[in-house]
Amino acid sequence: MIILSEINKIWQDLSTFKKINFCNIARMKVHSEFRRFLYNNLGRTALWMALVVVAIIAWNKWMPAEYLAVIKEKTANPLLIYSIFFLSETIVGIFPPELFMGWGLAYEGMPYWQTVVALALTSYASGMIAYGMGRWIRNLRYVRLRLRTKKARKYVHYYERWGGLLIIISAITPVPFATVSLISGAFNFGWLRYLLYSLSRFGRFAFVAYLIWKAGTM
């Protein structure tokens, strides 16, 4: 019964998403707040991707070889890198995933695409844990404090208006995925829908990894 209820809610969400299409966003005042929020984050995404590409090209062309060797040696432990990434995606959210995908391009322990898949799975699992923290241990002092921050309250407002759509936006743009996952759990957003909408995260990793790979070959 729970699964059938979740499937019905997914269908309802899809009907809502169809109403909020780009044409409607462009001409309907009722969606002006959503339009500003979406365009702002899409613009931030495009700017950030451009900076990442430029940084990688500049790194490969002008970073001295001896410095590259030292950095590669210091970051040769994949367990340490994945642990930092896991904590960042679950709790802190301070390090952008692109930083770790750039590391994966230089890491020689496995093919680049496997590293990207491993990072994407880690990010997805981290979001699940943040969701679980919000849903099942929301009374924990740490969780309560996170939900009371100014940034979290802002996304609570967006979540109350757009629900599942905010999860998708946070999965593919700089909107903090861990924070939105925590909020989703705290507001008892359906677990099946959360897992489904969070799959958008893999699309972001695939697109960004391709850009980083192309920049690394220039």
List the main descriptive attributes of the protein structure presented here.
globular, 13 helices, 218 residues, 83% helix
In short:
By secondary structure, the chain is mainly α. It contains 13 helices and no strands. Residues 22-30 have low confidence and may be disordered.
Explain what this protein looks like in three dimensions.
- With 218 residues, the chain is mainly alpha-helical.
- The chain is built from 13 helices and no strands.
- The longest helix has 31 residues, at 32-62.
- The radius of gyration is 19 Å and the shape is globular.
- The model is unreliable at 22-30 (pLDDT under 50).
> What is the quaternary state of this protein?
single chain
Give the proportion of residues in helices: over 70%
Total number of helical segments? 13
> In one word, what is the shape?
globular
Instruction: Give a count of the beta strands, DSSP E runs of length 2 or more.
Output: 0
* Low-confidence runs of at least 5 consecutive residues: 22-30
Query: How much of the sequence is in beta strands?
Result: under 5%
Residue-averaged pLDDT, rounded?
A: 81
Gyration radius from CA atoms, angstroms = 19 Å
Cα distance spanning the termini: 53 Å
Q: How would a textbook summarize the main sheet?
A: none
Classification by helices and strands: mainly alpha
The helix/strand order is: HHHHHHHHHHHHH
